[in-house]
Write a structure and sequence with these properties.
binds ligand LQXTBERG; 60s Ribosomal Protein L30, Chain: A; five-stranded mixed β-sheet; 12 helices; Spore Coat Polysaccharide Biosynthesis Protein SpsA, Chain A; four-stranded mixed β-sheet; Bifunctional enzyme IspD/IspF; 2 domains; binds cytidine-5'-triphosphate; elongated; metal-binding; alpha/beta; single chain
Length: 385
């Protein structure tokens, strides 16, 4: 059983998007073929450390969102604060730091998430990203006349993700007496300190039609790059009869296991190599050395998740993967659908596994081991300036 990550990220996406005015929940509006929610999860997956993810969506969209998403998905409520509370209720036990993030800030770079986590760890209290206010700010009376000019040198426009020690955030939500527009306000009400770290211009909140236009422009100025890669892996069957067989992320009872530093899952390993190669980010050997004790006996799913994170940190998402297993046993076809579904969910993209034999030729044909060959398509973004 993998340990609970110390950080959880709640992505709130249950708003109706009234100010955007598209008669559709805002997070489910598409920009260049992908929803705002889906885009907002890219940087979360690109964070430096593995995190638990909780996504909060309108009740009617919970089942649809949960299908194929590697995250807990729960129903939100009438206000942002109530939606955060719904997400907070399912944060895994053992979590130390919680980040609350607006799906509407879909282009926040991963380094902002990492910066907030580092500052929460360093200070032991709440941390929010913010930018100095650049406009002159006026107090205006109800009749439209200017009342006064507010000293902007003390003002900060705050963004998300906002990070807090879990205990402080839970307590602040338990004590909350009013409805606030951000989580830091609840923490201050509960008497906890909150500090500001640098935010990022790309972290703007998609609120109005103008903001949506800005998001579309941002993507238009980005050139999508498609790249393909190939990966091959082979492992001999173990001489230890008690060794379990793990293949394509699945356990195969009664089948002879493969030897190797990890569980020897050739399908998962070939996929990782294809993805890393396609992205120009090295290979399995250079990324996951045998010196790492955490990887001793690790299942293929661990390598696949880490590979997805490595890609996401460099702005790549998985397009699709096709992989062929070569060997005499196990008979793969009865579990193909199960394998495809598991691997697709882990990578967030279609994965198709097929199997063949070598007609008795070579070491694989003699039943000495298994081989897998994978091809992968990755999609990246190159900023054009
Ligand atoms: N009841 C709500 C309201 C807001 N949010 C989320 O909180 C973030 C910030 O809210 P905002 O940008 O104000 O979104 P909406 O409430 O959808 O916008 P509007 O006020 O225009 O309806 C968004 O990601 C939104 O989905 C939420 O999860 N539940
Ligand atoms: C949390 C937030 O994004 C910080 O700027 C903001 O307060 C949410 O604003 P809204 O009132 O829900 O639009």
């Amino acid at each position: 059983m993998p340990a609970t990550p110390s950080v959880a990220v709640i992505v709130v996406a249950a708003g109706s998007g009234t100010r955007l005015g598209l008669n559709r929940p805002k997070a489910f509006v598409e920009i260049a073929g992908r929803t705002i929610l889906s885009r907002s999860l890219d940087p979360v997956r690109g964070m430096a450390e593995p995190v638990s993810i909780v996504v909060v969506v309108p009740e009617a969209l919970v089942a649809e969102t949960a299908a194929g998403l590697d995250a807990a998905v729960v129903a939100g409520a009438a206000t942002r604060q109530q939606s955060v509370a719904a997400g907070l209720a399912v944060v895994p036990e053992g979590t130390e730091i919680v980040l609350v993030h607006d799906a509407a800030r879909a282009f926040t770079p991963p380094e902002v998430f990492d910066r907030v986590v580092a500052a929460v760890r360093a200070t032991g209290h709440g941390v929010i990203p913010g930018l100095p206010v650049t406009d002159t700010i006026k107090g205006v009376a109800a009749d439209g006349t200017v009342r006064d000019t507010i000293d902007r040198s003390t003002l900060t426009a705050v963004q998300t993700p906002q990070g807090f020690p879990l205990g402080q955030l839970t307590e602040a939500y338990r004590l909350a007496a009013g409805d606030f527009t951000d989580d830091a306000a609840l923490l201050r009400e509960a008497g906890h300190p909150v500090s500001v770290v640098a935010g990022d211009g790309r972290s703007f909140k998609i609120t109005t039609a103008d903001d949506l236009g800005r998001a579309e422009d941002l993507l238009r100025r980005s050139l999508p790059t498609m790249r393909t890669g190939v990966g091959v892996d082979a492992h001999a069957f173990s001489t230890d009869e008690g060794e379990e067989l793990w293949l394509a992320g699945l356990f195969w009872p009664g089948e002879r296991g493969l030897s190797g530093h990890s569980d020897g899952d050739v399908v998962a390993h070939a996929i990782c190599d294809a993805l890393l190669g396609a992205s120009g980010l090295g290979d399995l050997g250079s990324r996951f050395g045998t010196a790492d004790p955490e990887l001793a006996g690790a299942h293929g799913e661990v390598f696949l998740r880490r590979t997805r994170q490595i890609l996401a940190a460099e702005g790549f998402t998985v397009g699709n993967v096709s992989v062929q297993l070569i060997g005499n046993r196990p008979r793969f076809s009865p579990r193909k659908a199960e394998a495809d579904a598991l691997l697709s969910a882990v990578l967030g993209a279609p994965v198709s596994v097929s199997a063949t034999t070598t007609d008795g030729l070579g070491s694989v044909g003699r039943g000495e081991g298994l081989t897998a060959i994978a091809t992968a398509l990755v999609v990246g973004v190159t900023r054009s300036g």
